[in-house]
Amino acid sequence: MSIYIKPPNTATTERLQLLAALHDRVSRWVSHDLLALGARVSMAGVFFLSGRTKVEGWLTVSESAVSLFEDEYKLPLLAPDLAAHLAAYAEHALPMLLVLGLGTRLSAVALLGMTLVIQLFVYPAAWPTHLSWATLLLYLAGRGGGRWSADHVLSACLPLRRA
Questions:
Q1: How far apart are CA 136 and CA 118, in angstroms?
Q2: Is there a domain that residue 127 lies in?
Q3: In this structure, are residues 140 and 108 in contact, taking their beta carbons and an 8 Å threshold?
C-alpha cells in the first residue's frame, strides 16, 4: 500500500520561501540589535553606578574615593589621586556614550581595559563577574552597537561609506 502526498502548488511554495526569508532577516536583525542594546545598557549601568560612588555632587571626586585608591586598590604606575579622577570621569563619560551608542566600539574597549585592571590589580577573586562583563564588552567591541545606536545613524549619514 502506498500513500500519495499531493505536492504543494508553486504559489504556496513561493509564499513559504518568502516567509522563511523574511523570518531569517527579521530574526538576525532583531537578535543582534536587541543583544547590542541590552549589552550597552547593562554595561553602562554597572560602570555608571560605580562612578557615582566616587563623586560628591555631579563630578567632584570624593576624598573617600581617593583613599580607596590609596589604601585598597593600590594601582601600579598611577598616583591614587590621578587614578581616582580618571576612573570617576571614565565611569561617567563612557557609559553615557554606550547608552547613546556613540563610539560604541571605542567605549567598549576602554571599559574592557578598566575591567582588566580591576581583575588583575583590585579584585582578582571576582573573575566570574569580570568574565561576564568582558564577554558583553567584547561583543560590543567586535560587533558594534547595532542599528539602534547613534553610530549606525551617523554611518548612514556620512557620504563616505565602507566598500
A1: 16
A2: yes
A3: yes
DSSP of 74-138: --TTS-HHHHHHHHHHHHHHHHHHHHHTSSHHHHHHHHHHHHHHIIIII-GGGHHHHHHHHHHHH
> How many Cβ atoms sit within 10 Å of the Cβ of residue 67?
13
Is there a domain that residue 5 lies in? Answer: no
Domain residues for the domain of 144 are 33-53+89-155
Q: Is residue 71 part of a domain?
A: no
**Residue 117 lies inside a defined structural domain of this protein:** yes
What does the radius of gyration of the chain's CA atoms come to, in whole angstroms? 23
Domain count, the chain: 1
pLDDT of the residue at 58: 82
Q: Fill in the DSSP letter of residue 73.
A: I
Contact 114, 130 (CB under 8 A): no
Grid cell in block for residue 90: 571614565
pLDDT digits 0-9 by tens, 52-91: 999 998 889 999 999 999 999 989 899 999 999 999 999 9
